[in-house]
Amino acid sequence: MIDFLYTLFIAPLEYWMHKALLWGFDITQQWGWAIIVMSLIVNFVILPIYMKAEAWQEEERALRKSFEAKEQMIKRAYKGQERFAMITTMHRQAGYSPLLTLRSSIGFFLQIPFFFAAYHFLSHFEPLQGISFLGLTDLSKPDELFKIGDFAINFMPILMTVINIASALIYTKNLSKRDKYQLYGMAALFLVLLYNAASGLVLYWTFNNIFSLGKNIVYDLVRHFTNKLRGLGLLIKSTWLKIFAFTDTGTTFQSSPSIVNGYLVYLWGLAVALAVLSSNQITWFSDGLKLSLSAHSDYAFLLLAACAVIECVRLRMWKHPIALILIALLLYYELNTWYKWSCLGLNRRYFALSASFAFLIISLTLTNFKFGLKNLLYPSESKPAALLTPGAIWLVILLAFYLPIQAFSTAPEGFSRIEEVLAMLLACVCVAGVIFWCLTKLFELTRYADFAGYTFAFISLLMTVYAFLLPLNVGTINAFIIANPEPLFRNVNVVVDVAVITLFSIVFVWLIRSNKVVWIKNILILCIAGSLFNSVFILWSTQEAWSRDAENTQTVDLPDYNDRLFGFSKEGQNVVVVMLDAFAGRHLDRIMQETPALKNQYKGFTWYREALATGPSTISSLPSIICEEACTPWELNKDENLTLAEKVNRGFANTLNRFGPSFDVSLYERNWTERNRLAKYTSHQPLLIRNIGDSYIRRYAAENNLKIDRGNSDSFLIAVSLFNAVPWGLKNMVYKDGRWIERLMGESTAALVYNTYRDLALFKLLPSVSNIRAQKNTFKFIDSELSHYPWFSEPGSCKLLPYETPGTRPDGIPIGQMAAETCSLQALGDWFDWMRKEKIFDNTTIVVVSDHSSGFVPELSAVNRKGSVGRPSSLLLIKPQKANANAPLQISDDYVGIVDTMKFIFASLNNQNIRVNKATRYTFVPDGLTANQYREEKFWKVEGSMFDERSWKDISH
């Protein structure tokens, strides 16, 4: 039990204290000063909580003081039950309850876990041993600065107590004797507890008291000058309200509520409705119609922006600069996003989603200035401001603590140690808490607390409904991959969301307008209290799982689809296409010269040295590997009635259908594959994988006794909590085919290394996870980013460094790039050796291809001077079935492109020997893309060798 309480309440604080102490040491290079820095950090972090607790104390004291004299009179005049009944009645009439005393004691209770954390941490922190500081000879032992005979006197605890009493004297000048005695008693208690403690710990607590003393002096000065400067204070307050308030009590609204005056909200509703109907969630409409609906949604948002500008002028919004600045910033962001998407072809960045929220704020703000929304949302006697604090607290706890704890408890072996997870969640709660605390203060100062309380309560309770009453059944989440993603793409999701949000809004507005604010407040408080108690219960009941060594208990089971993805036919035909993202094909001759062992592993292959990339990026080039000319940018641009996603997935399906029912088809591709789109065109059931998950990296780590830093992957808990709490139609935007929300999952170096390990682990495990039990012919496409930048491969081995591989070779090629490309080929070579051993090498067509090149290719130096030619040197290695397995690696200088990959494959399946040698080839350099087209920057015709600058002709429109 003690260990559980320590883990739950103390260990997370220790974790952050340790981080703060190390950070302080990095700055000061002195452990003593580092302790002082840690003390300051801790005190500043918890200062808002102390301030709130002290405000509650002031309220409780003022309330108690209002009936204290009457209570003393009752105690003198009455006895027994009569006295008890009268005092209880008086307390109830005054609004006083024992809970107020408990609430006002938070400041005291808050010190307890910090005291134990500091005591345990600094008392056992080995680097403090033998360290002296400011006359203290050893920070790990009591100071013993004075001695009387053989009796040592510890000076620091006495100094700490003197400072504590001085702080109490300032703080308690206007307090009752009971409050004074409490503070003096606490000072004496800490003297007893810390008298024989390590001087480093006493140093930490002494500076806590110095901070408290400084805080109390500031408070006293503020109280002293408040009365003298009251007039100036009132002037500042009135000026603040005039400048910063969205509306105030003196606002004369432009008109009374009417249907016409809400036109901005109606226009917003139209834009959102069109955006919803054009989303991927809706499959009732054709792709062309959805493109049209999406465009009209954008036009509706643009019209709304123009109307908002007109209203700002008409309402003279410059008199309310903060509201005007907010509107201007939101308009700028959304219009800039739309412009970059529509005119420059850059990422759309979920424009419809962000515009829905941004223009809702704009519409409501301007509509409020026209006639005051509170007249519609709640009556004047209703006070939704009472919902502001509980609504904000519940929203923070729900998303940053309770739902993450639930997710962690289902599979603790997949995350860091419990104390690290709790520390991360504590940090999230604190950061979110500070943000919401600042927002609540801002809303209170701007007299917008009613509307803010209304909004926070609405959002937090709506998320509660989705999290607990309407969970979407998508099966288990294993290695960050949802077992059954089909429910994310149903038409019914939008219908359910519209119905639920409409019904919830009606009920919520009715409760507010019926003066049932207290009901809602009590629901929020019950949610807060219940979630905290249930979190403790969940952690207690799963203690056995998370208290074990995570590295020893972490599952190494392979995913259910493994046998199908890596299953081969012993007697039939097999086709394997491995796409090495960004592998520079022209590097292969150097790799073979520097790693001669690869020549044996690649016997039977032909290297097409002149393989030309279709485009300079995966988005523009990869589709043509699978579906040939039909999926090149210039061909895809011809059909403007379908989205690029629809056209590419249709092309994928057409290629997969060519293999026919005798083939078991598997497609592991990360960029374009969309299950719901592709399913419309496939004639059989291919295995479709967008994200491979963590199963292979876990097995690889276990087999090689590796401890791989997950980087920021613990923040997945926040992503999955958001996934559980948002409406059904938004869940896929959080999940994103297993990538979740990338910014939450993190892009630290450790996270990038971890992602590279995913691809390395898969390649390294291929010989052990593959089988020859397939009952049909097989086709498999495997996507890998092992050769993609950033490169972490250690030269001369397939080990990964915890940092980006430094240095450049004499020929200008990055050392890390060459190491990563070599490692990719070596790992695949081991797989090909396994195929030889299992006697399926001869009946397997193997293609190793890259979508484009990267880094530096010396042979393209002259060509690059022509301008933007992209990254054209792709890798193309082909081993047809029944090729001479002992023939040395052949080199072909035929003029081919990766667009010809499938021609070679189907010729091999038909036992045909073909030669592709084109007089003219093309490569396309896009300048971004729209929903249905690639934007053209350069379009090149290559007649001859790609490495000869004279072969390149610019045919851009």
Instruction: Please identify the top-level CATH class of the largest domain.
Output: Alpha Beta
Gross morphology = globular
**How many structural domains does the protein architecture include?**
4
| Low-pLDDT stretches | 247-251, 549-553
Q: Which class of secondary structure composition applies to the elements?
A: alpha/beta
What is the CATH H-level superfamily of the largest domain? Alkaline Phosphatase, subunit A
Report the mean per-residue pLDDT as an integer: 83
Q: What proportion of the residues is helical, as a percent range?
A: 55-70%
Assembly type: single chain
The main pleated sheet reads as:
8 strands, mixed
Write the layout of secondary structure elements.
Blueprint: H1 2-28, H2 31-77, H3 80-94, H4 98-104, H5 106-123, E1 146-148, E2 151-153, H6 155-171, H7 177-194, H8 199-228, H9 230-244, H10 263-277, H11 287-314, H12 321-342, H13 351-371, H14 374-377, H15 388-410, H16 418-445, H17 449-469, E3 477-478, E4 481-482, H18 491-513, H19 517-541, H20 543-546, H21 550-553, H22 562-565, E5 574-580, H23 588-594, H24 597-601, E6 606-608, H25 618-627, H26 633-636, H27 644-658, E7 663-668, H28 675-678, E8 687-689, H29 695-703, H30 716-725, H31 731-735, H32 742-745, H33 749-769, E9 777-784, H34 815-837, E10 844-849, H35 861-864, E11 876-879, E12 890-892, H36 901-909, E13 921-929, E14 934-942, E15 952-954
Parallel strand pairs: 5-9, 5-10, 6-12, 7-8, 7-9
Antiparallel strand pairs: 1-2, 3-4, 6-11, 10-11, 13-14, 14-15
Helix pairs in contact: 1-2, 1-5, 1-16, 2-3, 2-4, 2-8, 5-8, 6-7, 6-8, 10-11, 10-13, 11-12, 11-13, 12-13, 15-16, 15-17, 15-19, 15-30, 29-33, 33-34
